[in-house]
Amino acid sequence: MMSLMDVMFLVLVFFIYCIFDMAVHKGLKVDLPDAAGAAEKGERIVVTILPDDSMQLNGMPMERDAIVSRVRELNAVKMNLPVLISGDRKSSLGTGIELLSALKAAGVEKATFQVKGSGVSSQ
User: Fold this and answer.
1) Tens digits of residue pLDDT in 34-68
2) Does the first or last residue of the chain, that is N or C, have fewer Cβ atoms within 10 Å of its Cβ?
3) What does the alpha-carbon distance between residue 51 and residue 21 come to, in Å, rounded to a whole number?
4) Domains identified in the chain and CATH numbers
5) How would you list the strands of the sheet with 111-114, edge to edge?
């Protein structure tokens, strides 16, 4: 009976470990560019740039200025969460650069671009 309890405990630990190891991405499916980078984990703000250069903040459509002000509000409450910019391959480079510049001007210290492959590449 003790061996069965040990096995059940190990199975339970295995499933708990697997659940905590899964990463949940709160974003839209976009065609990311290929590049090497370091993976980042933890809570973050996700800004998605769609192929038509429209933007979304954590899945909600917004204009660039509204995104910047909302990120500033979130960082005031949650102490500088990193911002992950997930831009589609077909979106304009200028849109991403303008967004990054506006975020930096608003005081965002950690802003990164998401890429295919190894994770995200820091800016």
Assistant:
1) 555 556 666 788 888 888 889 988 888 989 899 88
2) N
3) 31
4) 25-122 (3.30.420.270)
5) 60-62, 55-57, 45-49, 83-87, 111-114, 120-122
Buried b (16+ CB within 10 A) or exposed e, 68-89: bebbeebbeeeeebbbbbbbbe
Average pLDDT score over the chain? 78
Residues 6+ apart with CB under 8 A from 99: 47, 49, 55, 64, 67, 68, 85
What CA–CA distance (Å, rounded) separates 62 from 57?
A: 7
Instruction: Give the Cα separation of 14 and 77 in Å (integer).
Output: 35
Backbone phi, psi, residue 19, to 5°: -65, -45
Looking at the chain, list the stretches that DSSP marks H as alpha helix, in order from N- to C-terminal side: 2-21, 64-78, 93-105
Distance from C-alpha of 13 to C-alpha of 15, rounded to nearest angstrom? 6
pLDDT tens by residue, 64-77 = 899 888 888 888 88
